[in-house]
Amino acid sequence: MARTDTGRDTEFAEWFLARRGRLLRTAYLLVGDPDLAEDLVQETAANLYLAWDRLDASGAVDAYARTTLINQARKLWRRPWWRRERTVDIMSEPISGEATCPDPPQAAADPATLPDASEQDALWQMVRELPTRMRAVLVLRYYEDLSEAEIAAVLGVSQGTVKSQASKALAHLRSAVPTHPELTREPQ
Questions:
Q1: Residue 19 confidence (pLDDT)
Q2: Closest-CA residue to 135 (of 51, 27, 41, 46)
Q3: Which residues contact 173 (CB under 8 A, 6 or more apart)?
Q4: Who contacts 61 (Cβ-Cβ below 8 Å, separation ≥6)?
Q5: What is the model's pLDDT at position 103?
Q6: Is 96 helix (H, G, I), strand (E, B) or coil?
Q7: What percent of the chain has pLDDT over 90?
Q8: CA dist., res. 52 & res. 11, Å (int)
Q9: Contact by Cβ (8 Å): 182, 123
Q10: Domains in the chain, ordered, with CATH?
């Protein structure tokens, strides 16, 4: 029996299409694999669709989507195969440049101080190698631009844990690439 569209499906589809790119970029930054990122976004969309009526009424859809995405990534990280090396015959096509990297530095920045592409790639590789909670904190703080309180709520930890994880992660990255301009600037 076919269900009639009461506007719920249309509302969900519009919301999801408007935010899919951001969710996909966040997922990619968390897992570093375009196929796994797409899977995380699809799982998140399925969970959101099931809870849509409840969420739409409360106005907490974006926060719920972020939390669901992080929780889906956590489930993935707990699986034993996640820690093993995976080989493939052919490299998958990368997600478009807009989706894989955070927003580029401001155009007004001095070009001499901007890192080259190899430095950016090396930095993001180091971020991907961080422990999962540190990586999640950095992505949510510096890419999603969430406050410490919002990150704590998404991850289900205290604000102190968010601060310490961010501090440890940045210290690790700074020690590996001490001259990278993104790591030497002060947080806003």
A1: 93
A2: 27
A3: 123, 126, 127, 130, 180, 183
A4: 15, 48, 55
A5: 47
A6: coil
A7: 29
A8: 9
A9: yes
A10: 1-84 (1.10.1740), 102-188 (1.10.10.10)
User: Element (H or E) spanning 57, and its range?
Assistant: helix 52-58
What is the rounded average pLDDT for all residues in the chain?
A: 77
59, 82, 126 from 121: Cα distances, Å: 37, 21, 9
12-16, 115-119, 154-158, 165-169: segment of lowest average pLDDT:
115-119
Residue 57 sits at φ, ψ, to 5 deg, of: -70, -35
Q: What are the residue ranges of helices labelled H in the chain?
A: 8-31, 34-50, 52-58, 61-78, 80-83, 97-100, 117-129, 132-138, 148-155, 159-176, 181-184
pLDDT score of 113: 52
Distance (Å, rounded) from C-alpha 41 to C-alpha 23? 6
Its pTM stands at: 0.66
- Tracing tokens 């509302």 back to the chain, one arrives at 11
Q: How confident is the model at residue 22 (pLDDT cuts 50, 70, 90)?
A: very high
